[in-house]
Design brief:
Blueprint (H helix, E strand, L loop, with lengths): L7 E7 L4 E4 L5 E14 L5 E13 H10 L5 E14 L5 E14 L30
Parallel strand pairs: 4-6
Antiparallel strand pairs: 1-3, 1-5, 2-3, 3-4, 5-6
Amino acid sequence: MSRGLNKVMIIGHLGRDPEMRYTPSGRPVTTFAVATSRSWSSMDGERHQETEWFNVVAWGNLAEICKQYLTKGQQVYIEGRLQTRKWEDKEGNKHSSVEIVASEMMMLGERRDGSNHHQPDSAESEPASTDEDEFPF
């Protein structure tokens, strides 16, 4: 039997402060947006930059940690899985949204409060940020 894989890793900056709420059962959930940027030079030497925004959702203990330690503008590493949410609004219009359900978060950049990372599931070292100028394709 074949096995699937759904894993996402991003490094970017928070576009807004995290927002935390609780489910009816009392489970904490925190949401925030992360912007990732890449830059490259075209064949004619022209410099380009592109920014991609990701909605991130964290649950449970990780949700509380994200709310407590993350702030707008902060650089962060997020690891998790992609999830598509579908819903219908009051007018009957169908909507969908792709988000990252976080399983791991590490604060990068400057230390703000003496803590710079949280690793709930592994003991990996902090990932290095790679800024590739050109892509081979």
